[in-house]
Amino acid sequence: MSDALINGLAGAGGGIIAQLITYPLQTVNTRQQTDRDPKKEKRKLGPVEQMSQVVKQEGWSRLYGGLAPSLVGTAASQGVYYYFYQIFRNKAEFSALERKKKGIGDGSVGMLLSLMVAALSGCVNVLLTNPIWVVVTRMQTHTKKSQPNFTGSPSSEEVVLAAVEPPPFGTSHAIQEVYGEAGVLGFWKGVFPTLIMVSNPSIQFMLYETLLKKLKKRRLSSSKGSNDVTALEIFLLGALAKLGATVVTYPLLVVKARLQAKQIIGGDKRHQYRGTLDAILKMIRYEGFYGFYKGMGTKIVQSVLAAAVLFMVKEELVRGSRWLLTGGAVDSVKPKPR
């Protein structure tokens, strides 16, 4: 089994586990991002308060709205990303070794090349999986209609209407809604800011690779002379790398969510976006720069936790797979260049 396939499958497995753990936070964060109320003075609910509110008003199931397509999307995204990342990484390492033979460089992949590898992998991933995330966003932001409040004695017709539970909003409903609004192209809404967002995993992996390399170098120079990295250390490195990437790229994430959420036709024109630039300009005009950072606290908690779990599980799966395939212990978290 190739390194690319091992990393792809391990990335998918790690992504699914991370998604299951952090999904309620992700649902709350998407709702915060798509909240278009420009009033700054209104007290904003924290993630725990908002989760409690969703459970009280809509039930536990709404915290996991869109979980099924999200798991498919996570597995697909992580699998595609890590598969192509490893392929491009191997080519970059081979190219670096060839340059070293010619007396150019030290044979290692530099920071800039690592950034390019991650960005290219991210672009392939975005183009292939964006339709899944449009559907997930619709399902996360869908809310149950509130029951009517009666004044006086309700009529028999009102009682019947109040007793009717709205049908569940499933994957097929979200797909039909997106297609009904914009046709096939509707499934690629938000693809432009998402393509720019590939800088997030690029920055994340650049920081992760740099920190991991420094940690291994320190280990090799120690008295033990081993570059083994523990699962806890991978967890912490992944969290730190994701934190830095999230702070830099969060405004693009908000714009993407706004474009992918349901557009209210015939409603307030301030809340209707024709495209990325239109969304940015309207957010600046009606909400100020504050609008670009709605829900950032929740996102930091969710994304850092998810990334840390992902890195830890993924590396352990890679380590275990190589151990099973080779029948021996693996002395490094990452494979040595071939």
Description of the molecule:
- It holds the Pfam family Mito_carr.
- Solcar repeats lie at residues 2-91, 109-214, 229-320.
- Residues 33-46 have a biased composition (Basic and acidic residues).
- It is a multi-pass membrane protein.
- InterPro entries: MCP_dom_sf, MCP_transmembrane, SLC25A32-like.
- This protein is mostly helical.
- The protein has a single domain, classed as Mitochondrial carrier domain (Mitochondrial carrier fold).
- Helix content is 68%, strand content 0%.
- It is built from eleven helices and no strands.
- The chain has helices at residues 3-33, 47-58, 67-101, 111-141, 156-163, 171-182, 191-196, 199-220, 231-260, 276-287, 296-326.
- α3 (67-101) runs antiparallel to α4 (111-141).
- The longest helix has 35 residues, at 67-101.
- The protein is globular, with a radius of gyration of 23 Å.
- The relative contact order is 0.15.
- Residues 146-152, 156-165 and 330-338 have low confidence and may be disordered.
Shape: globular
Output the radius of gyration.
23 Å
Count, helices = 11
Tally of distinct domains: 1
Distance between the termini: 15 Å
Mean pLDDT: 78
Q: Multimeric state of these chains? A: single chain
Strand residues, percent: under 5%
What is the SS-derived class? mainly alpha
Which topology does CATH recognise? Mitochondrial carrier fold
Report the top-level CATH class: Mainly Alpha
